[in-house]
Amino acid sequence: MRNVTLILDDGSRFHGKSFGYEKPVAGEVVFNTAMSGYPESLTDPSYAGQLMTLTYPLAGNYGVPPFTFAPDGLPVFMESERIHAEALIVSDYSGNYSHWNAVESLGNWLKREQVPGITGIDTRELTKVLREHGVMMGKIVFDDDPDNVPQAAYAGVNYVDKVSCREVIRYNTGEGRKKVLLVDCGVKANIIRCLLKRDVEVIRVPWDYDFNGLEFDGLFISNGPGDPDTCDAAVRNIRQAMQNEKLPIFGICMGNQLLSKAGGAEIYKLKYGHRSHNQPVRMVGTERCFITSQNHGYAVDSNTLGADWEPLFVNMNDGSNEGIRHKRNPWFSAQFHPEAASGPTDTEFLFDEFVKLL
Predict the structure, then answer these.
(1) What is the pLDDT of residues 58-105, one digit of tens each?
(2) Helix (H, G, I), strand (E, B) or coil at 176
(3) Is 337 part of the annotated catalytic residue set?
(4) d(CA 222, CA 259)
(5) 136 is an annotated ligand-binding site residue
(6) pLDDT tens digit sequence for 99-134
(7) Which of 86, 253, 296, 322 is catalytic?
(8) What is the rounded distance in angstroms from the CA atom of residue 315 to the CA atom of residue 206?
(9) What is the pTM of this model?
(10) Catalytic annotation present for 132
(11) Are 207 and 184 in contact (CB under 8 A)?
(12) What are the chain's domains?
């Protein structure tokens, strides 16, 4: 295992060993406080461009499930067709694994997909630095090749365009089914699964596709990576669709931000984001609280919502916006992930609410 150093933009250095693919890499360093679910997190397109730090100290002990695909083309156990995170940073990597569904080690998977993994890092101290300073760019450099220093930018890069599908894809086609138009900003597979098990047809289109000429019964805006301000084309298309005040619209994560922008609200970057399985949110106007899975670095400024909009959910840790709804029209969104995968499924009922509106 080669010696590596993680170098943050503030000059902080963390020393460890390589257990994944051996190449230097750079990206935005973020931390995830979930205790499990690294196969789902690594394949979540929302992690594109990021070096993912796991705060739970042990990783790899349950291995990796098979990368198989269902007849509809969706991966069975993963959230997309490949790993999207730029690298994985852990405290203690276990090369020995035990799980009924595991077929390979985490290290072998990373090597096969050419993604670096580093272990032996003081992830507790790294997380404290990121919480104090905020997320920042970082580089993983191999100590025996110090001149090979990677460069990368995150701010202003349209990562949605990098992970979105390139053509229209249809699922569950058939007579009589309600049609959901899904804007793919980096959609997780379980979002599509949650729609399909409610027996709707899903029409998946690229993030900047002008879908307003198609026939559909509801508009769904997916999650995705990076800065929503790079997605003006999607916002314009959503705004045009909103001219039909009876059209049901549901957005998740990036979808919450793009729907908010289409409604005139502003977005800001969180200091270190929400990436975990245990974020508490409250439904505004009620005492109903839910534990949610989250993965986002930007948030909607609730103070900039127009008079026709109101917050739907609020984060109980920092008071940030976790969803919006229109006061008259059937439009709503969630900043968290009701489809989980991985994480709690407390809020999957939101898919039922959306399908009822179709």
Answers:
(1) 999 999 999 999 999 999 999 999 999 999 999 999 999 999 999 999
(2) coil
(3) yes
(4) 10
(5) no
(6) 999 999 999 999 999 999 999 999 999 999 999 999
(7) 253
(8) 30
(9) 0.96
(10) no
(11) yes
(12) 1-140 (3.50.30.20), 157-355 (3.40.50.880)
